[in-house]
Amino acid sequence: MKKHLMSLIHQIWSIFLNGLLTLLPFTLTIALFTFSYRLLKGWLEPIKQLEPAYLQTIPNAEFILVIAIIFLTGLIIKLFLLEPLIHFIESIFFKIPLMRPIYGGIKQLVQAFTVQDKVTFKKVVFVQFPRHGIYSIGFLTSEVPTEVSPDSRVKYFNVFIPTTPNPTSGFLIQAPEPEIMILNLSRQEAMSIIISGGIIQPDRFK
Predict the structure, then answer these.
(1) Residue 140 lies in a domain
(2) Does residue 50 lie in a domain region?
């Protein structure tokens, strides 16, 4: 009798887990999008106050307005060749002590994950970190000048190793060229693996 009861409890628990694991990805995805939507809506609340009366009758018109502003900004910069003006404004930002490191860091991070960027985060690599025999995913950023290289006879590279699940923080190491393994991964695929803690793998490898 006890054996049949335990078997029944096990089956009920198995069915419950099956339903939970099936619904969990859907509910978490919806919850994440809902949270992101509310967060963005809160950030854009000041813009809603500036909307003309005819736009205020349209639900979520602030999103449309922001998209239009972004598009127009890109169009104006491209048509009127305003890059020198942008660089001038950036030079002012870089002269402000507290703003310089924040703006510079954010700008470099954004540029690192754009398709146009050909210099920063050149390749996805494996390096032995934090100790010999254990490998971490990193991004090859630049070659180390011989003047600051640990050994001028060997070519060294700067490798940025992001942390999980927050890839904006991490470690910068200088690794010799023979100890760097190039991975067959795009930057986006590598970031997905890092952020998910290895749970998400590229579809082409499945």
Answers:
(1) yes
(2) no
The CA distance from 176 to 151, in Å, is: 9
When comparing pLDDT for 82 and 10, which is higher? 10
Q: Is 31 exposed, middle or buried (0-12, 13-18, 19+ CB in 10 A)?
A: exposed
State the pLDDT at residue 19: 87
Instruction: With respect to residue 24, please indicate whether it lies within any of the assigned structural domains.
Output: no
Residue 71 belongs to a domain: no
Q: What percent of the chain has pLDDT over 90?
A: 20
Contact 172, 204 (CB under 8 A): no
Helix (H, G, I), strand (E, B) or coil at 206: coil
pLDDT in tens, 25-47: 888 888 888 888 888 878 777 77
Put simply, whether the predicted model's pTM sits higher than 0.70 gets the answer no
Q: How far apart are CA 185 and CA 122, in angstroms?
A: 11
Token pair for 164: 């999980």
- Region label for 155, one of left (φ > 0), alpha (ψ between -120 and 50) or beta (otherwise): beta
For 50-59, the pLDDT digits (tens) are 666 666 677 7
Please, which residues have CB within 8 angstroms of residue 93's CB and are 6 or more apart in sequence?
A: 99, 100, 103
- Domain interval for residue 144: 123-200
State yes or no: pLDDT of 79 exceeds 80: no
The CATH number for 170's domain is 2.30.30
CA distance 160 to 119: 13
| Structural domains of the chain, count | 1
Q: Are 122 and 138 in contact (CB under 8 A)?
A: no
